Amino acid sequence: MDDYQLLIERAVTRANTVALVGGLDSGKTTTALRMIRAALEHGRTTAFLDVDLGQKSVGPPATVGMKLVRSAADLEPAVLAVADSIYFVGATSPQGHLLPVVAGAASLLARAREAGAEFVVVDTSGLVSGVYGQILKYHKVDLLRPELVIGLKRGGELDPILGILNRFFATDVAALPVHPEVVPTSVEQRAANREEAMRRYFAEPLQRYRVKPTVFMPALPALFELEELDRLLVGLSDGAGSTIGMGYLEHSADEGVLRLISPVAEAPKALRLGSVRLDEAFRAKRVDLRNLFGTD
Q1: How far apart are CA 95 and CA 53, in angstroms?
Q2: How many Cβ atoms are within 10 Å of 202's Cβ, its own excluded?
Q3: Which residue among 80, 95, 111, 274 is buried most deeply as judged by most CB within 10 Å?
């Protein structure tokens, strides 16, 4: 039995929440899926919490996604991609969005527990370098309190983060080298994966709702030009604290009307503005809401 399998057995027999930490192309998702399969074999009710915003296994890009896994069939990519719950972050990178990423992870972990998940695997983003990587992982562990954190490392890249987690928390921290069979993904392929995931999410049939300018968070400034919101990604709220899906805004210059385009059949109660504008090919361009609003 190799080191990976030994650690997986340890995780599924001793822990209730396991967080995977590693840089880009470190094999976190592959390890998460192996762990979930092992948990199913041990008869444990399991959930996959996908906190990576760009390269998604569960839910669409720009969200945190949670999937309850009741059988191996739920791990088929097309099935796994359909989340049971999502939390809208509105960006495809955690940089500049640490608070909603951490809040989303904590919110969906609570939902997984409410749904009966005994064992939850948390697949985190590849942001591990510098101050922001350390702050993000620190607060994520602080809120989720996993019994085990597994670092998949190349050289000493994870040493600062794993050292911080060891010093500040009672959680068990283990490290393994990135598996030699892990295949790197190019920047271009990552972008193509995001675009394809967005296109799938916004496949027909789509709903079109007329939108009032008073339904947004953050609130629009006085005299704000609605055309500035054209193609901006938004999260749909049910008015009770949950995200029911995503959409994008469409501004009609002829009518002066703002519409929401979304695959979600249920009309939302409110909309959260994202920091991404989608072009016609569903390529995402980052938007700074502070600059857009002309405020601090």
Answers
A1: 10
A2: 17
A3: 274
Among 204, 264, 210, 255, smallest CA distance to 237 is for 264
**171's tokens:** 């959680």
Q: Which tens digit of pLDDT belongs to each residue from 51-63?
A: 999 999 999 999 9
Q: What is the pLDDT of residues 230-239, one digit of tens each?
A: 999 999 999 9
Domain ranges of the chain: 3-187, 202-293
Q: How far is CA 189 from the centre of its chain?
A: 19
119 close to 38: Cβ distance less than 8 angstroms: no
**Quick check: 137 and 128 in contact, CB under 8 A?**
yes
Cβ burial of 3 (10 Å; 0-12, 13-18, 19+) is exposed
* Token reading at 140: 């994520």
Superfamily of domain 3-187: P-loop containing nucleotide triphosphate hydrolases (3.40.50.300)
Mark 260-288 as b/e (b = at least 16 C-beta within 10 Å): bbbbbeeebeebbbbbbbbeeebebeebe
